[in-house]
Design a protein that fits this description.
Blueprint (H helix, E strand, L loop, with lengths): L1 H34 L7 E2 L9 E3 L9 E4 L2 E4 L4 E2 L2 E2 L5 E3 L6 E9 L4 E8 L15 E5 L35 E8 L2 E6 L2 E7 L3 H8 L16 E4 L6 E10 L1
């Protein structure tokens, strides 16, 4: 009895300690889970049915040349005024993005040209075009468009800044899948499952590249760390689909 009387307090203390330890472990696990869930889920930028969430650069709505057809966003360039279709123009997202992971598919017509433009400042009175501020992922028919003969102007290139390597674009009329990851100054571009461009934004080397490009005299080009995403009207038929984004 003496031994049992001495053991009972120890058993009670041991059980209490185990309970406290279990509670502490559960709490820590919950905190760890909470701190590890910073990234958001994927959000569609195109619902496959409407142009909701987009507008023509500097305007309130999307021009009629951009049509929703069979789950794609199609720039119909059949009726041109000068070099662009009437009621067309570059379109931009409603929201701005800084750190993000963007995915989409593109298909270009024979001899066609378009682009995916990043960090766009939607201020046409200050910046005349989307590409006045935004670096562009080139969308091009490499086999047919004259730009393909110019270094850093081919499909998958960061236009006039960095040539894609390796080249992975598919012929006109075939779908290409692109991913763009911008995270804390690091920019990676993937085309058809392969990383083709990787660079650091806004550092001295970036500024040097911009200074050596056709954008050197455009104040604000490539300088913004957040902006809208644009799809370019370059006067040629182009299709986009499966457009989605995740903030990082």
């Amino acid at each position: 009895m003496t031994t049992l009387r001495h053991l009972l307090p120890l058993l009670v203390l041991g059980a209490l300690g185990a309970c406290q330890s279990s509670t502490h472990q559960t709490s820590m696990t919950a905190n760890e889970k909470s701190s590890g869930s910073a990234s958001e889920a994927w959000q569609p930028l195109f619902d496959g049915k409407t142009t909701q969430g987009w507008h023509t650069y500097g305007q309130a709505k999307v021009g009629k040349a951009w049509k929703v057809e069979n789950g794609t966003l199609h720039l119909d360039a059949a009726h041109k005024q000068d070099w662009q279709p009437g009621d067309g123009g570059d379109i931009v997202t409603a929201e701005s993005y800084g750190n993000f992971h963007l995915k989409l598919d593109w298909k270009i017509a024979a001899n066609g040209n378009s682009g995916i433009i990043l960090f766009v400042q939607d201020e046409p009175t200050k910046y005349p075009n989307t590409w006045s501020t935004g670096p562009e992922v080139q969308v091009l028919d490499n086999a047919g468009h004259p730009d393909a003969k110019i270094h850093k102007h081919r499909a998958g290139d960061l236009y006039d800044l960095i040539a894609s390597n390796p080249e992975t674009s598919k012929p006109a009329g075939e779908w290409n899948q692109v991913e763009v990851i911008s995270n804390n100054g690091r920019l990676d571009i993937f085309q058809n499952g392969t990383k083709v461009v990787s660079t650091t934004l806004w550092d001295d080397n970036w500024k040097k590249m911009v200074a050596g490009s056709k954008f050197k005299d455009m104040a604000g080009f490539g300088a913004f760390k957040s902006g809208k995403i644009a799809l370019q009207d370059h006067g040629d038929d182009v299709w986009y689909r499966n457009i989605m984004i995740k903030r990082l």
